[in-house]
Inverse folding.
């Protein structure tokens, strides 16, 4: 299996750039709202991309790769820890990110967006870490 991490790296780069532009936009301006929306959607895309990439990665470690398709998002991360791909502290943070994402089904308002914005510096760092781990530990394509 060829696991490529370039898309995840690009998602992280896009999210980081959107966050930077959000920080430079005047609060309350239309630009602020545009970039805040872009950041929230970028967070969601990066989170899903990371989970899908990790799901593909752990298929190399299990006896029945099709069983991995049935795992929940959090179980994918648990399996990654079980097989030494990720440290438990990193996984706990990804659980927090996922829980935040799940809240979008109930709250698309400003409070949700602001809660997401508070998570972003750590999330961006953790997403970069995950991309690096998958690229380096599994010896797959470089970004």
């Amino acid at each position: 299996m060829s696991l490529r991490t370039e898309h995840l790296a690009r998602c992280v780069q896009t999210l980081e750039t959107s966050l930077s532009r959000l920080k430079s936009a005047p609060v309350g301006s239309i630009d602020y709202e545009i970039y805040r929306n872009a950041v929230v959607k970028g967070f969601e895309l990066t989170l899903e991309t990371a989970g899908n990439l990790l799901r593909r990665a752990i298929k190399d470690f299990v006896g029945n790769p099709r069983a991995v398709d049935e795992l929940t998002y959090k179980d994918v991360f648990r399996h990654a820890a079980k097989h030494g791909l990720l440290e438990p502290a990193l996984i706990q943070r990804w659980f927090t990110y996922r829980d935040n994402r799940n809240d979008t089904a109930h709250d698309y308002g400003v409070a949700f967006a602001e809660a997401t914005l508070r998570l972003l510096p750590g999330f961006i760092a953790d997403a970069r870490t995950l991309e690096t781990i998958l690229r380096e530990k599994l010896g797959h394509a470089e970004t």
Q: What stands out?
A: Residues 2 and 140 are 6 Å apart (CA to CA). The first helix runs from residue 6 to 24. The chain has one domain: 6-137. The chain has six helices and no strands.
